[in-house]
Prior knowledge:
35% helix, 7-stranded mixed beta sheet, alpha/beta, binds glutamine, Rossmann fold
Amino acid sequence: MKRRMKTASEPDQSARMAGDGTKRAAPTMIGAVKMAAEYLAGREVSSPRLNAEHLLAKIMGCERLDLYLRFDERLTEEDLAGYRAFLKRRAEHYPLQYILGSTEFYSLPFETSEGVFVPRHETELLVEWIEEIFEERGDATFIEFGVGSGVIAGSLVSRNPAWRGFAFDRSPRAAELAKRNFISLGVSDRVHVFVAETFGAVGRGLEFDLLVSNPPYIPTLTIPALQKEVSVFEDEGALDGGSDGLCYYPQLAEAGVRLLGPGGVIALEIGEGQGADVVEILAAAGYENAAVKKDYNGLERLVAAFRPGC
Length: 310
Ligand code: GLN
């Protein structure tokens, strides 16, 4: 096939010599986003345009919306190579947040890293509900099981300057990341992070106002059917809640009975359709006034209850 020759009048300020000797203009920001979105859509990445924007903003070191102010600026060869590498990785369904290395949770910045559960927006509801339950109470103490990257504990203490707590995870990688996030948020003096398998490590004599957790709650056999981002690339230990997904709730309930003070609150994230079972587990352990809350998609997402003794 005959190659079409570029005419002299074509804009070639930023034209590059391609490997085959022809001149090819580097794409503009807007052109690059469009091409990338099409490429990602073809690889069945959900929200392809948003992903394309986030990744280009990361390459350009700017905010996503700035891309539209700089829409006709052309990418350099180096930017383009970096962008291509990101897109290739994302097309393999490697999580966006791992490529970006950060995410927002409740409008606060958190570092994200491979091997540690990616924060989900639904979990913001847990923080919101806890604050509603505590009615802007000045001081409160909490303990969190499964700190992950630290979004729950980090946002609770950032938003409530007199709250303090303990947060632990079985994964040393998660605990390290949470610690880094608490340092960046300037709250590391109010959350003590440690690595532990169970609540057994929490000393007797301590009493908390709140036990909070987003434990692993996906039934083991359904994990392979989740989107690749989750099933292939996330830490299975942070997802797998045993055969029915409920295996962590009895130990959380039991820990709360031991560690919560009178009138203390247990607040837990749950999976779809687990509300009645978790309420039953809490009621059997003696909790009162258990309530289930749905998320914005109308799915049961949270359960909270009070330890008796108000
Ligand atoms: N909500 C997460 C998901 O759907 C699972 C969270 C969990 O197991 N705690 O992937």
